[in-house]
Specification:
With 327 residues, the chain is of the alpha/beta class. The protein has helices at 53-58, 85-99, 111-122, 147-153, 159-163, 166-174, 176-183, 217-230, 233-236, 242-248, 299-302, 304-318, and strands at residues 13-18, 21-28, 35-39, 62-66, 104-109, 127-133, 261-266, 287-292. Strands 1-2-4-3-5-6-7-8 form an 8-stranded mixed sheet, with helices on both faces. The model has no long low-confidence stretch (mean pLDDT 96).
């Protein structure tokens, strides 16, 4: 069956037991020589890459897109202790082992970008190259810095303090469709902040917005179904990992990302503005940087033509579907 990017059922859904959990993943063009590993963020799923999966497969790549631990049909440990960049990186490498895929190029977005950078550092023999959309590289730190202190320096992350609280989980579980309808919008449609300044709520008590024309009904239905079935706690556990990530990444202090890298920022991303990529060359010396104008945080489907063209050009140089890289 041909892939219909707006119909989640048309993709090749698979499951694997790896690293003590069950992972759901999409696997397209499995006979191809070169594999790409696409990593999503919050409150996303593999489906956030719907505009890229068929395009990359058409270029001749195997396209593997896991649903990360804590989301959708993958295991969702209730305890925040069972997460962290080291743990999730091992999930992904264990999936590659299960599939007998020795090396990949990683493409990542949002929390997926944070994991992707760390995976490239933890497993340099498995990650050939890495592309991150919106999420800049941040070096591992030698001392623990709590989220409250991070927010003081980066006020654009203030929303994360709420997302790790029990009321956030309750709100999303009780207003699931209204939540996704509000969050999944083009930059030009984002006229209100994520958190209401007066009530402090994500969605409860706020005006219900119409579905954006950028989101197909079947796509929205899939996101809603996953939370209605499994709840939102697993994904929100990702916001409770500041100390876990510090502990799990201690061995990476002072280490660079030595692989070829692509960093693509979006002018309208309020949480991860392009200025946050300033200076990453010191830690990612082989990085190629781009900024997509007129895109918000959901750059992957808001500006798919621009994203796909950047990937096509960068992959042709660093990780061609056939032949050797032109570096």
């Amino acid at each position: 069956m041909a892939i219909d990017k707006n119909d989640p059922a048309s993709f090749n859904h698979q499951y694997a037991d790896v690293n003590g959990i069950r992972l759901h993943y999409i696997d397209e063009n499995a006979s191809a020589q070169k594999a790409l590993l696409l990593i999503h963020g919050w409150p996303d799923l593999w489906l956030g890459w719907r505009e890229q999966i068929p395009f990359l497969a058409s270029l001749g790549y195997r396209v593997i897109v896991p649903t990360l631990r804590g989301f959708g049909e993958s295991s969702q440990p209730a305890s925040p202790d069972e997460y962290g960049f080291g743990v999730v990186s091992k999930d992904l490498v264990s999936l590659l082992d299960h599939l007998q895929v020795p090396t990949v190029t990683v493409l990542a977005h949002d929390w997926g970008g944070a994991v992707g950078w760390r995976m490239a550092q933890f497993y340099p023999d498995r990650v050939v190259a890495i592309a991150s959309f919106c999420t800049p590289f941040t070096p591992a730190i030698p001392v623990y810095v709590p989220l409250e202190t991070i927010v003081e320096k980066y006020p654009n992350f203030t929303y994360q303090l709420y997302l790790r609280s029990p009321p956030a989980e309750k709100e999303i579980n009780e207003n699931t469709r209204a939540f996704f309808t509000r969050v999944f919008r083009r930059m030009s449609e984002m006229t209100e902040p994520l958190i209401d300044k007066e009530t402090g709520n994500l969605v409860a008590g706020r005006t219900e917005l119409p579905l954006s024309s950028a989101i197909a009904p079947k796509v929205l239905d899939y996101y809603v179904e996953m939370v209605e079935k499994y709840g939102s706690r697993g994904g929100l556990n990702w916001y409770k990992q500041t100390e876990n990530n510090y502990k799990q990444c201690k061995e990476l202090v002072g280490k660079e990302v030595t692989q070829p890298a692509l960093m693509v920022a979006a002018t309208g991303d309020r949480a991860l503005p392009p200025s946050m990529t300033d200076g990453i060359e010191a830690f990612v010396p082989k990085v190629e940087k781009h900024v997509v104008d007129g895109a918000g945080h959901w750059i992957l489907w808001e500006k798919p033509d621009e994203v796909n063209e950047l990937l096509k050009q960068w992959l042709a140089k660093t990780y061609p579907a056939t032949g050797s890289p032109r570096l």
